[in-house]
Design a protein that fits this description.
zinc; 4-stranded mixed β-sheet; Neutral endopeptidase, domain 2; globular; binds 2-acetamido-2-deoxy-beta-D-glucopyranose; Collagenase (Catalytic Domain); alpha+beta
Length: 686
């Protein structure tokens, strides 16, 4: 953003979505996709890591034999409720116990690989047969019926449908139709990589042949991939799909329906909306995709479409099934990420992620008990408030914004809602009965992993649609509490920091403050900056997508933003052919602006605190000044390593630059860094 530094900058399109999820990119399931969609549409995420280390530790403790006395600080510090995991057996209220048992059953079902393997393809096979049967019908509503059937299971085919806050009326829930986030391969760019496409087709053919042997398998797979190529070509580029100025296309349902005659959008939505709601207006995120879809469908055979629907179902559920039939596909996914073909994460990692997806708020409740103290909450609030104050100070002296814009911008900062730690509404995770109620329609047993997943998918889809006709629930959180991430949600004008990111070494009440301000403070500043980056700047203090910037301020912003585009476009990673694959300076623009604004605001906030209360030095690291350690803390948090293939995949679709570039680019732009390390020559660009 622009906001915080007097001469910083930013520009025009931005990203939002963060597809990159740590280790299990291929574990996309209905729910994951749904969550990703929510966040995609609503939030500018800051971090992309999804390590759930804290949860992992917590769960090891829970699901291991006995809660061990670990002497960890939080055992004693938990003051949120009478419940403490240390006294699990003795003191659980019965509802709390029932919630916990549900969580434990979900985890056990996932961990029971023997049962999962024994079930093999069978649980999925039943659904595949239904889909194949349905898609074969000659009825004119076949496509629509199949899309609906899959949608209700959380499977996206041909288009994605959902309900979320209307950007231009942020308290109202509106129906949104968009191209699928992912057509088949993890990013659109892969469809122009012939080597990858060839392997994908071979994997598809192998799976189809194992499921349904015939002498036509290769043709089916080929036609399927050609069809997906066309859909991919018609889809928006990553850098455009989350640009509100491009995707915000309100339309009458009637007109949207005409745009997609084979899908019968009006009838689809009519069958999904609550009985007392009559949708009349929807947002069509890419009318040109919808128009092209119509043409593409008209030249596609019924067999190809049938293969496509079946294939989407397989892709959506592959990670919930252990069966030889799916191995060629799983091998392909591993290879695409540069992993050993038959490798798999340790099962408990998968299962921890799984309970987070399925029963995330129950998990959150116990995570807070274990890993988040009242002091942490108070300190977190302090850091975020400090950063807000610094933002306002910086805005006051910003020279490139018009006075009128600065005034509104300051008002916007004042109005930013800060959600820190964990939700106490929608649902109140500290209230066992509301948690129980929230998940009452989810059926979980310890031996039915696949069916548990289906139950959760159906629940998520139904919950999404039930929001229609009611005001937007501004108390909801888009990330569960153990999540190591944070986000800014433009229509909500809110920043959200789950307790998962408020953990050592990013954040700790008991370490010198330059470390927490350097890492967590910069994260907070980053999120706040999103309120004024290439996306956030379009939304006013109420979260309304309006034109509140003057033309001269917009021009000044764009000019500065171009510097970021140029700067980050110079970074590259080795590409598929080992030629440099450059960072997409436009796709990553919003995040890069936010990084610059974040570290600047955090540094100023820390300096102010430090002037009041001196910090201690770190024993053994006295040769660094505290200013330098602030930046060491910042950079340490971005240390990471990725495989060549994963790095490529992220360049295609991640709105964040590679981690190392986030350090180098941000430090190169920071006057405070330059001064702290007494860098000699070059002028920082901002
Ligand atoms: C595939 O096998 C069927 C018989 O099962 C035969 O009628 C058909 O001609 C074969 N098609 C091709 C392309 O070989
Ligand atoms: C999609 O449709 C638009 C017009 O609506 C057209 O300009 C464009 O070329 C089409 N793209 C593809 C890939 O068919
Ligand atoms: C949002 O902005 C539109 C104009 O773009 C205006 O008509 C509407 O009243 C605003 N709504 C809110 C809640 O501010
Ligand atoms: C601002 O720019 C837009 C288009 O760039 C133009 O339509 C509008 O008239 C301009 N407004 C002013 C006040 O100059």
């Amino acid at each position: 953003m622009a906001g915080p530094t007097p001469k910083s900058d930013a520009s025009e399109r931005s990203p939002l979505l963060s597809p990159a999820k740590g280790a299990d990119d291929n574990a996309t399931t209905g729910q994951v996709k749904k969550a990703a969609r929510w966040v995609t549409r609503n939030a500018v995420i800051v971090f992309m890591s999804a390590l759930i280390l804290g949860v992992v530790i917590t769960l090891c403790l829970f699901f291991g034999s006995q809660p061990k006395k670990s002497g960890s600080q939080s055992d004693t510090e938990s003051t949120h409720s009478s419940f403490s995991p240390a006294q699990l057996v003795q003191s659980l209220s019965s509802v709390d116990q029932q919630n916990f048992d549900k969580l434990k059953d979900a985890y056990s079902a996932c961990m029971d690989e023997v049962t999962v393997k024994k079930a093999g393809i069978r649980p999925l096979g039943g659904i595949l047969r239904q889909v194949a049967e349905m898609a074969k019908s000659d009825d004119s509503s076949t496509i629509s019926d199949t899309v609906l059937f899959l949608h209700k299971l959380g499977v996206t085919a041909l288009l994605s449908l959902g309900a979320s806050a209307d950007d231009k009326d942020p308290d109202t829930v509106v129906v949104v139709a968009s191209p699928p986030y992912r057509i088949g391969l993890p990013a659109k760019d892969y469809y122009s990589d012939d080597a990858v496409v060839k392997k994908y087709e071979a994997a598809t053919a192998a799976v189809i042949d194992l499921l349904h042997p015939s002498n036509q398998t290769e043709k089916f797979a080929h036609d399927l991939v050609e069809f997906e190529k066309k859909l991919a070509a018609a889809s928006p580029d990553a850098e455009d799909r989350d640009d509100v100025t491009k995707y915000y296309n309100p339309m009458s349902l009637q007109n949207a329906d005409k745009l997609t005659p084979e899908i019968h959008l009006a009838s689809l939505i009519g069958r999904l909306e609550p009985a007392d709601v009559k949708t009349e207006r929807i947002i069509v995120m890419s009318p040109s995709y919808m128009a092209n879809l119509t043409d593409i469908l008209s030249e596609t055979s019924k067999e190809t479409l049938q293969t496509y629907f079946v294939w989407k179902t397989i892709q959506a559920f592959a990670s919930y099934v252990e069966a030889d039939e799916l191995k060629p596909y799983k091998r392909f996914l591993n290879e695409l990420q540069g992993k050993e073909a038959d490798s798999a994460p340790e099962r408990w990692r998968t299962c921890v992620a799984n309970v987070d997806e399925d029963l995330g708020w129950i998990l959150s409740r116990f995570f807070v008990e274990k890993a988040f103290s009242k002091d942490a909450k108070v300190f977190g609030d302090q850091v975020v408030s400090d950063i807000k104050d610094q933002f306002i100070e910086k805005l006051k002296v910003t020279t490139w914004m018009d006075k009128s814009v600065i005034k509104l911008a300051i008002d916007k900062v004042h109005k930013i809602v800060q959600k820190i730690g964990y939700p106490t509404k929608s649902p109140d995770i500290m209230d066992p009965p509301s948690l129980q109620q929230y998940y009452s329609s989810v059926n979980i047993t310890p031996t039915t992993f696949f069916e548990n997943t289906l139950s959760v998918s159906r629940f998520d889809v139904a919950r999404g649609w039930s929001a229609l006709g009611k005001p937007v629930d501004r108390d909801e959180w888009g990330m569960t509490v153990p999540t190591v991430n944070a986000y800014y949600n433009p229509p909500g004008n809110e920043i959200v920091f789950p307790a998962g990111i408020m953990q050592f070494p990013v954040f700790d009440v008991n370490v010198p403050q330059y470390l927490s301000y350097g890492a967590f403070g910069s994260v907070s500043g980053h999120e706040l900056s999103h309120a004024f980056d290439s996306t956030g700047r379009h939304y006013d203090q109420n979260g309304n997508y309006t034109d509140w910037w003057t033309n001269s301020t917009v021009d000044a912003f764009k000019e500065r933003a171009e510097c970021f585009v140029d700067q980050y476009s110079q970074f590259s990673v080795p590409g598929p052919d080992d030629k440099p694959l450059h960072v997409n300076g436009r796709l990553t623009l919003g995040e890069n602006i936010a990084d610059a604004g974040g570290v600047t605001a955090a540094f100023a906030a820390w300096k102010k605190r430090q002037a009041e209360t001196p910090n201690q030095d770190l024993p053994g690291l006295e040769h660094f000044s505290q200013e330098q350690l602030f930046f060491v803390g910042y950079a340490g948090w971005w240390c990471g390593k990725s495989r060549k293939e994963t790095a490529i995949s992220r360049i295609y679709s991640d709105p964040h630059a590679p981690k190392w570039a986030r350090i180098l680019g941000t430090m190169a732009n920071s006057r405070d860094f330059k001064e702290s390390f007494k860098c000699a020559s070059k002028e920082p660009i901002i």
